[in-house]
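Dear colleague,

Following up on yesterday's call, I've attached the two folding results inline so they're easy to grep. Please treat them as preliminary; we haven't cross-checked anything against experimental data yet. The first protein's sequence and structure tokens come first.
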Amino acid sequence: MHGEIISVGTEILLGDIVDTNSAYLAKELSKYGIDVYYISSVGDNKERIKQSVINASQRSQIIFLTGGLGPTEDDLTKEALCEALEIPLYEDQNEVKRIKNYFKNREIEMSTNNLKQALIPEGAIILENTLGTASGLILEKDQRYYILLPGPPKEMKILFTNQVIPWLNNKLRTKGTFLHSHTLKFLGISESKLDWELQDIFKAQTNPTISILAKDGEIHCRLSAKVSSQEEFNEIITPVKEEILKRLREYYFASDDTRIEEIVGSLLNKKRWTLATAESCTGGLIAQRITDIPGSSRYFLGGIIAYDNAVKKNILGVPEEILEKYGAVSQETALAMAQGVRKLLQADISLAITGIAGPQGGTADKPVGLVYIALVGENINKWERFIFSGTRNDIRWRSANWALYLLKRSLEQFESRSF
């Protein structure tokens, strides 16, 4: 089945917001064998929205429209769709009641234009919005399906997950082939190097196919196949996956949506070790990512953001002579920061990072992107040096990635023990 996504909103065309809805929907729809051939954006203009719907109807079987369902004069998606399909709108009394209750329950006076959102295309299925006032819709006309979703990503995603997916399963997922994907994630290897190592596999690929993507300092290798079941997919990709990992296992750290901080947390839990962090250039990013994982309080004691040298010296106990002789960005300072925070918080293992995130502050000897990462624990005293490229945020994120990767590799080297 061919699919199409139309994002409605002048703010997208002006660059005021980024259209994340289309990326999300395209990825999710591929799981249901819906090949998205076209993605477009159109402003808040009824005639142009109408023409976009007409164009989509001529080439796609299922059309998603996001945005333009609100109460204002420039929210015109439903009106344009109805004109394109020559069907009327009616005022749904259940929707009127729901919208009025939405404002009443929040003790907010409702302006009458909100009732515009109760206008529904005749024959449409209403997807009730529990987060906002604009409900979604599913409409079938001339063997085409039109699915209208709110523009705010949180509202769009919850409607898609809770109501559109069950509808897709019930109405569209018949016997046939569907696109399944499995992603292998790598660190410590460049995109070009990974591509080079897999050249023969690329040349021989049919089903599954392989694609490589550099993302947030990681390299993702996606295996995709058109199959009739998850079991068939697993059978097809297993030999290819095993061959890839045979060649590149030292760089592999996770699959699909698993994050490296989840793996670190799992390893710390398994070993019953506690962790403390000391961060300079990353400004607490490592601690944030670790504590993003539910249950991290079982193994993460806390962290110190030692941005100024006075904090490194007075809180973490970094000797003044180290700072004077080697500087704040050095292996000696990184190790001293790790030792200091481990002692201060009584942790089993500690991770420290110091560097120059830029865009200013670099020198010939210590350029922007220079980062030192240190790891200290019982029988552990190691450090690594990197020079990262990119923007300030790129350098900070890649630094945090590598710190977590160093921690992961080290944890895998030690036997479990109690503390």
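Below is the second protein, in the same order (sequence, then structure):
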Amino acid sequence: MPQDFAISALLTLFVVVDPIGLTPTFLAVTEGFSRTARHGTALRASLIAGAILVGTALIGDWLFRTLGISLPAFRIAGGLLLFAIAFEMLFGVRMRLEGRAAEEAAEENARDVAAFPLAIPLMAGPGAITATVLLAGRAHGNLMLTGLLLGVVALVSASCFVAFIFADRIGRLIGKTGNIVLSRLLGVLLAGLAVQFVIGGVRAFFPA
């Protein structure tokens, strides 16, 4: 059970956040930065996004109770939202949105780039937050599962940092075509995960 939960959490968050797919945007918003400034931006963005998702994981159960939302209902709603994000990935909408965010960020002060648009909304966006809340709900307050989820969040944040550090090399390696293909493949995987969330929510509402 813990191993299955950890694998599911890692796949879900890694696909939603998509560290490799974010490297072109990172290069765009840090264009003209020195190597030191770029590395500092990567570290700050990863820490901010990680802190947001950790907070989301810790208050997930409390949020359900406070708002009076049942886990099955949120599973269905979250699954539909994740499916919408998968749809954007499959048809290139997300990439266009990220490109627009990069253009907006170019007008902001360089110190703010780590928070917007890198940490929010690209890394810790609606999809990642929704996925984290769903996973926290599946943990049902179990300390071991919650600890595994926090570890997964830290691992995904670290993956983003590493991807940003090697963004130049990754960009040259996969190229524009490779990035498009990768985004489409991850979109298909995320769509499957989203449908599974919806199925789980429906089964909870209508148990056999």
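For the second protein, one point worth flagging: Residues 105-109 have pLDDT under 50 and may be disordered.

Best wishes,
A.L.
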